[in-house]
Amino acid sequence: MNASPGGRDDLPHVSVVVPARDCADVLGDCLSAIGAQTYRGPMDVTVALAPGGDGTRQVLAETCIEVPLRVVDNPSGTTPAGLNLAVAASQGAIVARVDAQSRVPPDYIERAVRTLASTGAANVGGVQRPVGGVGLQGAIAAAMASSFGGGPAAFRRGRRTGPADTVYLGVYDRGALESVGGFDEALERNQDYELNWRLRRQGHTVWLDSSLAVDYVPRADYAGLAGQYFSYGTWKRRMLMRHRRSLQIRQLAAPALVAGLVASAVELARGRLRGAALPLVYATACVIAAARLGGLLPGWRDRMRAAGAFVVMHICWGAGFLAGRSRSASQPDPDWPFEE
Predict the structure, then answer these.
(1) Which H, E and C letters describe 63-90, residue by residue?
(2) CB count, 10 Å around CB of 20?
(3) How far is CA 160 from the centre of its chain?
(4) What whole-number distance in Å separates Cα of residue 126 and Cα of residue 266?
(5) Which of 106, 149, 271, 292 is deepest in the core (most CB within 10 A)?
(6) 3-state secondary structure of 201
């Protein structure tokens, strides 16, 4: 399937772990990017494969990269279970998480390992850079990249380097990762944020390197985006119920918006025109934010698609937070494998 490379023994062994399910259309590019790393130390890749029927296993069978590649089955199909299985099946002193829908730059591992050593951090990660083609997917990518759409989290903005609450993906010191028990398998979503919370609570540092920009391929339609963000909101609430002190005020914005829009609908149903105030203000804000994407989306049609993506992201995240019902960890997430 693949060949084992050389490598410098004085550099730490890095194990890349990739959770995968129904991602045949993106996994090949993801693995190719991993195989093209400039890191000269020993490195291997473990893919945790969940049950599915889109040909992902066939893609793995046909993959040829210059890095040892192994596949382990992930019967439960959930992200954290897959990550823990892949970590357990690997041996590197450093564990790098890469998701199937991401594309790491060639120097990603090299730079992250260097930053781990220089900072003493337990986890180093970078910035998520949504990329899409033309049409709706490109508009969704632009909306996710906007602070109005994706929010002000540091791993989305990438305006500073230093300690952070959380980062995109993550390159972990194995000792620190294992000391907190790995990923919480009760959380299908938000397990990376929750893990970073536990690391920080134990006195470890989570380090954001703003120069590590990783491409992420977003959903290509509103339906997929809606399911993804509803799930985000649902599992964020569950995570906050477990770790109430991790709450950030910004995380209440979308639920407050949804509650306000419901109250507005009730007012309008009673014939009170004041109920139109919040919907009008919000719709105007979406249009203005979309208009500011002119550098990414030169056409007004795509900007209005981005405005629609704002609405889907905000409403579905807030609705999931307020009313979503989280499944047990044994039930697979249809929008997996991406994490926020």
Answers:
(1) CCCCCCEEEEECCCCCHHHHHHHHHHHC
(2) 28
(3) 19
(4) 43
(5) 149
(6) helix
For residue 190, give the 3-state DSSP assignment.
coil
CA–CA gap between residue 194 and residue 39 (Å, rounded): 29
Sequence-separated (6 or more) residues with CB below 8 Å from residue 251: 236, 240, 321
The span from the CA of 178 to the CA of 92, in Å, is: 12
Structure tokens at 253: 């914005």
- DSSP 8-state assignment for residue 53: S
Residues making up the chain, counted from first to last: 340
Measured CA to CA, the distance from residue 187 to residue 184 in angstroms comes to 6
Q: Whole-prediction pTM value?
A: 0.77
Tokens (6 digits) for 329: 């960890």
If you average pLDDT over residues 211-239, what whole number do you get?
A: 86
Distance in angstroms (rounded) separating the CA atoms of residues 318 and 243: 19
Residue appearing with tokens 């046909």? 62
The pLDDT assigned to 330 comes to 37
Tell me the one-letter amino acid at 222: Y
Q: What was the pLDDT predicted at 158?
A: 62
The per-residue pLDDT for 337 is: 36
- At 9 the pLDDT is 62
Q: Kind and range of the H or E element at 311? A: helix 300-323
What does the pLDDT look like over 160-182, one tens digit per residue?
A: 899 998 899 999 999 999 999 99
- What is the spatial distance between Cα 161 and Cα 142, in angstroms, rounded to a whole number? 23
Structure tokens at 34: 């991993």
Instruction: Tell me the pLDDT band of 53, cut-offs 50, 70 and 90.
Output: confident
Distance (Å, whole) CA 51 – CA 36: 28
pLDDT of residue 6: 47
| Cβ atoms of 109 and 42 closer than 8 Å | no
Query: Tokens for 249?
Result: 């005020």
Q: Where are the alpha helices (DSSP H) in 186-294?
A: 191-201, 222-242, 253-269, 277-291
Sequence-distant (≥ 6) Cβ neighbours of residue 298 within 8 angstroms: none
DSSP 298-309: -SHHHHHHHHHH
